[in-house]
Amino acid sequence: MTIKEVSETYDISADTLRYYERIGMIPEVTRTAGGIRDYQESDLGWVELVICMRKVGLPVEALIEYVKLYQEGDETFEARLQLLSEEREKLEEQKAQIESAINRLNHKISKYEEAVKTGVLNWEENSSCI
After folding, report:
1. Best CA proximity match to 54, nearest among 25, 77, 80, 29
2. pTM of the predicted model, to two decimals?
3. Residue limits of the HTH merR-type domain (predicted)?
4. End-to-end C-alpha distance for the chain, whole angstroms
């Protein structure tokens, strides 16, 4: 697959794909004899991983470290496990914060829905973030 095809398939610019490769967020992409990028299935797997992980906020540095460890071989299994586990833990914390914010919003929304029906807005005494 050409870089243009990958760019269109994943809705990501060719410049971003080149950048990801240049800084080590994805391993060096397979190239033709003429030096043109020729994305293979394994290359696309890395692109998909990076897009997915970036969407959820994994830091660039963590992805670079993961690729570096992967390229060092099987002796880095434990280090990769540790890295991924730490990143999962951070995401779990973010998830809890998001769930808390959603719950608070749901509570506020229900109060406003009630107020729209009754014409009266009743807040509890301990209600915050009005």
Report:
1. 25
2. 0.76
3. 1-69
4. 53
Nearest to 40 by CA among 84, 81, 1: 1
Report residue 35: phi and psi, to 5°.
90, 5
CATH number of 3-118: 1.10.1660.10
Q: Where are the beta strands (DSSP E) in 17-68?
A: none
Among 40, 34, 2, which Cα is nearest to 18's? Answer: 2
Nearest to 1 by CA among 39, 36, 31, 28: 39
Reported in sequence order, the residue ranges of 16-88 that DSSP labels E, i.e. its strands, are: none
| Calpha distance 25→18 (Å, rounded) | 10
Segment 53-72, tens digit of pLDDT: 999 889 999 999 999 999 99
Q: What are the pLDDT digits (tens) for 8-29?
A: 999 999 999 999 999 999 999 9
Percentages helix, strand, coil for the chain (3-state, rounded to 5) are 70, 0, 30
